[in-house]
Amino acid sequence: MKKENPLKWLGFRLIISVQLDNYGEIRFITGQKLKETNYSWWVERVRANLSTCDIIRIDHFRGFEAYWAVPYGDDTAINGQWEPGPGIDLFNAIKSQLGELPIIAEDLGLMTQGVIDLREATGFPGMKNFRICI
Length: 134
Description:
The protein is α/β, with parallel strands linked by helices and 134 residues long. It has 5 helices and 7 strands; from the N terminus they run ββααβββαβαβα. Strand 6 (103-106), helix 4 and strand 7 (126-127) form a beta-alpha-beta unit. It starts with 13 loop residues before the first strand and ends with a helix. Mean pLDDT is 76; it is low at 1-7 and 11-30.
């Protein structure tokens, strides 16, 4: 039975897996398709959330700048590496279709200058998780 990669719809540049196409060739699963559709999957997810919520909190916002990618099927994260996330392009695409976004970016995880710069570029306020900070 083939293992399905549960992460393939996240929209990041690289999802750590390979799959066989109809001709038996190996190819990488990437988030490039989502970028080519102007991140429509993300736009619709944000639109759906805004239909029921006044404010959206993005947990682990740092993953939009870079994320720790672990090969699918590995038992530990030791073989992982940092991969670039979709960055400001994603949020610009969402804003262009939905307007200003009532989003709070959670400051959880390794907060590099790149993550801080991305949060500032989006204009989203940050938020600390008090339980994690103590």
